[in-house]
Design goal:
This protein has helices spanning about 10-35, 50-60, 85-95, 100-120, 165-230, 235-270, 295-305, 305-325, 375-445, 450-485; strands spanning about 85, 125-135, 140, 145, 150-160, 280, 335-345, 360-370. It is elongated, with a radius of gyration of 38 Å. The chain has one domain (about 45-125, about 165-330, about 375-495): Outer membrane efflux proteins (OEP). It is of the alpha+beta class. It contains 10 helices and 8 strands. The longest helix is centred in the middle third of the chain and has 67 residues, at about 165-230. Strand 3 and strand 4 form a beta hairpin. The strands form 3 sheets. Strands 2-5-7-8 form a 4-stranded antiparallel sheet, covered by helices on one side. InterPro entries: OMP_efflux, TolC-like. Keywords: Cell outer membrane, Membrane, Transmembrane, Transmembrane beta strand, Transmembrane helix, Transport. Belongs to the outer membrane factor (OMF) (TC 1.B.17) family. It is found in: Cell outer membrane.
Length: about 500
């Protein structure tokens, strides 16, 4: 340690240090606590009027999705204001779902960690003030020291070289911040997909309810015909019993469909953070929305926009910084410091009767520390991080392959559902005509009740197949947008401009 002593230091230096300390602490706490709130929830606390205005503005941009009046089984709020189509439900979920706020807090936390790591580049200022009482004062240079001493000191230290550990630590904190922001986007995309899937399943269930109601009405009408024929002796009692059994089965199917509707509505209420005591009206219909992207376009968008791909890329970079942090142990640590100390019998620590002049001193020094040998600890830690870096790279390559498979499989599901829509539409038309003919033949007494019930069963199956194909197609579109890392609240291509998500790295 290099020491430089000076005998006469005036009180001006003490005053300068105290003023400098006060200004430094005042500016630090003013910036840290006055200008930087911990969490900003202004977007999540929009009033009802602003929320409605925003919704109407975004609604004008929607395309290819036409909401219709829901069936009578839909709940309507007693307040008459809680009505949601798919787009508005997605926007509310992104504002009100607790998981979104949790990810926002995590992203804000990572930003504060980055700022904390950045502070390691600057000097460290410390100060101390104390009082010491000595039972047996020492004699130094023939002069007895005071038995009661007040001491004040100030120190400024600066890290000059730490084997690049400081730089690597800051870069790692930056990468962790970017990864946390991408994780928030990943959560948003998954939340959008959950809302859309439940919405589409709700529409599918409502179509099933409508189909079950129509089926029940047809079977009840057929039961009346069978009873009338039985009363006049034109049909056996067996026909009536068969009709009654089918009516009971249709009623059971209708009850199950209504129960499924209630369950899906409860799930949507949860995703939108709506009180379970409130009743809301979810409106919309199943429709075949266009999906204009090819396999190559889907893959290009997925690799460029998916948050998990971005997170995997950052994980490789973070592993690289961890490796450099481990390698910093091979290098010396160089620091410099300047300190000043004064002492005295008074609270001002400005000398005493025994020592009226030489009561303060300062020193400036530079120091290098180097752990030359630690039985391989630094080396093996470095090798460990190198293997972990390779692991992160392999996981990134694996994710790249999984993304390609996911995109291709979901695109195949979309194409299959599109073909099923055309086929099931034709089958539904034929099933309706077959039922009409079977019913007419039965009333003309040229067909049995079995023929009518068989035609009715095929008609119900055709309706269910068509509804399922429409729902599966829309769900496949939602899955593809999520697989590409895009946010389309109402499944139309135009709404991506509302919630863009792109990574430039």
């Amino acid at each position: 340690m290099l020491l430089i002593n000076k005998k006469n230091i005036t009180k001006f230096l003490l005053s300068f240090v105290i003023v400098y300390t006060s200004l430094f602490l005042f500016s630090f706490f003013s910036v840290a606590y006055a200008n930087e709130p911990l969490i900003n929830y202004e977007d999540a606390e929009l009033g009802e009027k602003e929320y409605e205005a925003e919704y109407k503005q975004k609604k004008n941009k929607r395309k290819n999705f036409t909401p219709v009046t829901p069936p009578s089984s839909t709940k309507v709020s007693s307040l008459g204001v809680d009505e949601y189509d798919m787009e508005r439900a997605v926007l509310r979920a992104l504002k009100e779902n607790p998981s979104v706020k949790a990810k926002e807090s995590a992203a804000l936390s990572s930003e504060q960690a980055r700022k904390a790591a950045r502070s390691a580049f600057g000097p460290v200022f410390s100060t101390s003030y104390g009082y010491t009482q000595v039972q047996h004062p020492q004699r130094i240079g023939g002069m007895e020291r005071d038995d009661a001493v007040f001491t004040y000191s100030a120190t400024v230290s600066q890290n000059l070289f730490a084997g690049l550990a400081t730089l690597s630590g800051y870069r790692k904190s930056e990468l962790l911040k970017e990864s946390a922001e991408a994780d928030k986007n990943r959560n948003d995309i998954q939340l959008i997909l959950d809302v859309q899937q439940n919405f589409l399943n709700l529409f599918k269930t409502r179509e099933n309810i409508r189909s079950a109601q129509d089926s029940l009405e047809r079977l009840q009408s057929q039961l009346k015909v069978s009873e009338a024929f039985y009363d006049v002796g034109l049909r056996p009692r067996l026909d009536v019993l068969q009709s009654e059994v089918d009516v009971a089965a249709a009623e059971d199917i209708l009850l199950q469909a209504k129960q499924a509707e209630e369950t899906i509505i409860a799930r949507l209420d949860t995703l939108l953070n709506i009180n379970i005591k409130n009743q809301v009206n979810y409106v919309g219909s199943l429709a075949k929305v266009p999906f204009p992207f090819s396999l190559e376009e889907c893959l290009e968008r997925a690799y460029r926009q998916r948050p998990d791909v971005y997170i995997a890329q950052k994980a490789v970079q973070i592993s690289g910084e961890d490796t450099r942090l481990a390698a910093s142990g091979f290098y010396p640590q160089v620091n410099t410091s300047w300190s000043w100390q004064t002492e005295g019998t008074g609270m001002a620590a400005a000398g005493s009767a025994k020592n009226p002049n030489r009561y303060s001193n300062w020193q400036l020094g530079i120091q290098a520390d180097w752990n030359v040998f630690e039985w391989g600890r630094t080396y093996y830690t470095f090798r460990q991080q190198k293997y972990l870096e390779g692991k992160a790279g392999a996981e990134q390559a694996s994710l790249h392959n999984e993304v390609a498979f996911e995109i291709k499989s979901k695109l195949l599901q979309l194409n299959q559902a599109s073909k099923r829509i055309d086929v099931s539409r034709k089958g539904l038309t034929q099933a309706r005509e077959a039922y009409r003919m079977a019913d007419a033949r039965h009333q003309a007494q040229v067909a049995t009740i079995t023929d009518v019930l068989d035609a009715q069963s095929k008609l119900s199956a055709a309706e269910a197949s068509y509804t399922s194909a429409l729902a599966d197609y829309a769900i496949a579109v939602a899955n593809l947008y999520a697989a590409m890392g895009e946010k389309h609240p109402d499944l139309s291509v135009a709404t991506q401009a509302i919630l863009p998500l792109k990574y430039q790295d």
